Amino acid sequence: MIPFAHALASRGDLPIPGWLFGWAASIVLVVSFFALATAWRKPKFENREWREILPRAWRVIGSRAVEILLGLISLGLLGFVVYAGFEGTEAADRNFALTFVYVTVWLGFPVLSAFLGDLFRPVNPWRQSGRAVGFAIGKLTGKTLPHFRYPEELGRWPAAAGLVAFVWLEIIYGTAGTSVSLSPEVVANATILYSAYTWLMMALFGVEKWSQRGEMFSVYFHMFSTLAAFEVREGKLGRRKALSGTTSWANTPGSLALVVTAIGVTTFDGAQEGALANAINWQVDRLADLGAGVTTAVRGADTLFLALVLLGVAAIYLTGIWGMRTVDLKFEFSDLRQKFTHTLIPIALAYLVAHYFSLFFFQEQAQFTFLLSDPLGTGSTNLFGTANYGIDYNAIGPEAIWYIQLGSLLAGHLVALTLAHDRAISLWSDIRVATRSQYWMLAMMVCFTSLGLFLLSFANE
């Protein structure tokens, strides 16, 4: 993450060492696995039953007028990110643009979406502006704009590629060579470029289709919203069983690529200056020996290891699927790979919370105090009288942060294990076969838990 995100809290002398918690977490997973095998014998999440709630309140909250207002606000914030990037200070920790994009939006929406549903859809500035333009053209011409057919085989692959590019810009391009942070001006230029690209794709394939398949923020945040108990269907707010929204999410091509990328980029960010630091530095030296400049060598080495981490995360999952098929050849490898992809969503959320909790907690103090009053960071404004506030690093102790990180990892993997078991018993009528198939998924969950704890041990040293 951006430099002010690193090492905001130190673990210090904690009552439970990381290695001991690792053993405890593994034991909890194993015990939970056998408890599920004993007591959970019918699938509970495959039925996506939904019932409408709060119809009167939703007629106001979900009205077109409110949606237009939210769209105008979000479009205004998008424009202000560009303005702050160009006109504000170059100091990353004093410019509104950096914290708003990479902390408030990027880290805030996944957690909110996981509990409250797809909150980004009504405030998506690209979707709302695209719909407004389409509506205006339709009124003027009396015709609906024609669109190309979206290649369904592409699925969510464009969103997965966009996710890699977004994170690459921050943790590789923005920290290479002698650069100390991602420049606000670079963020502004990237925002303009991404907006132009998004609006072009919406013009070609339609606003809703591109929002559902290719627009990275929409697709990424929606992935986490499938964990929530709330869902809007046909303009009505309803309640479903929590986690049930995940069961059909992976039916679209590219879904595995997206969730693996979500886990992989967080893993790489945690390992870049910790577990992989020596290997990356060695690769930098090799590239420099070949004549590459410092910046090129650093970016090249980081990019190589990011790709390797993504492949490693995919390999862990695919190994679990391969092992599952050795238990019973009833299903093809490709079928099982798709049918269990959704079990990785809670792991992606757990990694996100574990790695970035301290950043979000402390930097949001900045977002709603001095960055709100002096968003350009120039010292010339104090809109709300909080421009001189600072970040209180004593607001939460390192022990509390450590337990939240560990707790989120364990909770995420327990949910993933539960989703995997639920899917297994829906595929195999014989509970014994279903249980044996999940030995491999249990091993995969232990691997992901151990990896997360390993990265945290480096981050908090």
Beta-strand content estimate: under 5%
The unreliable regions are 1-13
Residues in helix, %: 55-70%
Number of domains: 1
Please describe what this structure looks like:
With 461 residues, the protein is mainly α. The chain has one domain (3-376, 392-459). The protein has 18 helices and three strands. The protein has helices spanning 18-39, 55-61, 64-87, 96-116, 120-123, 125-141, 157-171, 184-205, 207-213, 216-225, 255-271, 277-289, 294-327, 333-339, 345-367, 370-373, 398-427, 431-459; strands at residues 50-52, 230-233, 236-240. It has a three-stranded antiparallel sheet, covered by helices on one side. α11 (255-271) crosses α13.
What descriptive keywords fit this protein?
disordered N terminus; 461 residues; 3 strands; globular; mainly alpha; 3% strand
